[in-house]
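quick one before i forget lol
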Amino acid sequence: MITLDVKSELKLAEKWTNEHSKQLGYSIATAMNAAAQGSKFIAGSKQKSALQSLANQAPRYIDRPKKSTQKGWRATRASKRNLSTTILPKDKPYNQQRYLGGSATGGGRAPKDFGAALMNHPLARNIPSGSRLVPTPAMKRDKYGNVTKTQINKLFDQANTTHYQSKSVFIGKPRGGSRPPGVYRRHNNNTQLTPLFYAVSNVRYGARFPAEKVVGQSIQKDFGIYLRQELAKNVAKNVKAGKADTRTGIF
C-alpha cells in the first residue's frame, strides 16, 4: 500500500480559498488516476504512468516476457468520493495473476500454458499431483521459451496407452529404471523413449519483481505535479466562469 501526503504536495505560500477546498477532492482523484495509469487530459502522463513503469521494468525481472505480460497490469479509478486506486494483474482477456502475481509476491511458479494443457490430458493422472511440466532440449521452443499450441495439440492427440505405433506419445512414469514421470515420445516399436517433458515439483520462489517499489517511485515522482496543476486549473476555470467561492478558507 502506498500512502500519499496531500498537504506536502501543495504550495503552502498560495492563498487558500473555499474554492480550493471545493475542488481538492476531484483534483486529487484526477492526479491519482494520471499518475497510476495516465490521463488523456494530462499530456505525457500515460508514458510516465505507474503502469508504463511496470511494463518498462518487467524484462529486468521476468524471463523473456511477452508484450501482453509486460502490459499485464491494470489500475482501478479513483473518484472524489473514493480517493484510492489499486494496481493489480489484468484478468481479461487472459488472467495475468498466474504470472505477475507470483513474480511480485512470490510463491509457486505458475505453469506455462503448454504445461497446463498437457496436465489436463486423461493420462496425466499418472503424474504426481502438484507437478509442473518442463520441456527438455528435444522440444523446440519459441523466443519466449514456450512450446507452440500446434505442437501441444499434436502431442495431446498422439498420447495413448494401447497403440504403440511409431512417434506415439507416452505420459506418465516409464516402467523400470529411474526415469522420472513426464511426457515421452515412443520410437522403434516402443523399445525406446525420448523425454519431451519432465514432471518436477512446483518449488516455491521468493518475489523477484519489486512491483510495489516500482509503482511507489513512479507515483511519488508525478502525483504532486499533477495535483498542483489540476487544482490550479479547476479553480481558475470556476473563477473565470464567475462561480468560484474566493473567500479565504482553512485547509
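fyi Residues 211-240 form the longest helix (30 residues).
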